[in-house]
């Protein structure tokens, strides 16, 4: 998030990241300071909120503008409209004052909403060194630029994108019943009815989750082998994806 408003102001950038890798990201960014006068520090006095529209969302932006002193940042979630807005406040801010009529949920509610829509987030859903940008649908979520120039993996990513041959994608999956917490091993294999590998499970909450699946297998009956038991699951293509994108 860009905090400075004009080009002649001193630049201030706020970077949102997975809290579990906060220290690693700071070390990584400091490697590239290269004698520049850049200060990199965590903002531990801030709180991040996901504002997800309900059936009667009303004019959230209008009501929030009245409490601009409490809201440091309020902006549409850049990934997709279905994810609503990102709100950053000072710690201890009163959400009922900032967004009147809002209901404060918990982190499980947020994850369930993400998984239902097939939205990955953080190192659990997108393991570093394992998750590929196009297979993770980042091109659908404003997560890749094909015009900004070179970056690590840019040539392979751009070529694959323009060829349009992506055989696996991260998809939302649904189980017939909620699974016990942490009952599925990380990267557990998903199989077709004939026992052929169809992909790997990434993460989930209750009866919802994300899995990296071969697109050729997503309409077949699928299952996970958990402690010797076969647990059925179904995959779906999110409605927010661009048309003709499930290729």
TrEMBL record:
Chief location of this protein within or outside the cell: mitochondrion
A GO cellular component annotation in the UniProt record: mitochondrial matrix
One GO BP: iron-sulfur cluster assembly
Pfam family, one: Beta-barrel_CAF17_C
GO molecular function terms listed in the Swiss-Prot or TrEMBL record: transferase activity
The entry's keywords: Mitochondrion, Transferase, Transit peptide
SUPFAM superfamilies on file: Folate-binding domain
Stretches assigned to the CAF17 C-terminal domain: 167-243
UniProt keyword Transit peptide present: yes
Keyword Transferase: yes
Compartments it resides in: Mitochondrion
Cited NCBIfam families: ygfZ_signature
Protein name: CAF17 transferase
Upper lineage: Eukaryota, Metazoa, Chordata, Craniata, Vertebrata
